[in-house]
Amino acid sequence: MKTFSTNNLLKDIRTVTSAAAKAPVQITQYRKPRFVLMSIDDDERLTNSDPRKVYAIEETPPELRAFMLAEIDKVLKDDKDDRQAPSGLF
User: Fold this and answer.
1) Which CATH class for the 2-48 domain?
2) Whole-angstrom Cα distance, residue 70 to residue 3?
3) pLDDT tens string 61-72
4) What is the pTM of this model?
5) Family assignment (predicted)?
6) How far is C-alpha 70 from the chain's CA centre?
7) What are the boundaries of each domain within the chain?
8) Half-sphere exposure of residue 89: CA atoms within 13 angstroms, side-chain side
């Protein structure tokens, strides 16, 4: 990602906006990243895309199913261990 300072933006807005038309650009202020300037097409693509997906049980990809089952097993094991912990400490 190209980077421009706020001074660059004020002095040469044409260069900065031309770069932003091709790809998002970072705008710094006091040498720290503060803003991103991008085309409206890039913004719409980002705001209209939703990476979440819902699967029916039989449609779940095998690697996702394996991950979810492993996490469920961890939670169940932790819950079982908590119930078997000695009581009477308080």
Assistant:
1) alpha beta
2) 42
3) 999 999 999 999
4) 0.54
5) Belongs to the phD/YefM antitoxin family.
6) 23
7) 2-48, 53-85
8) 3
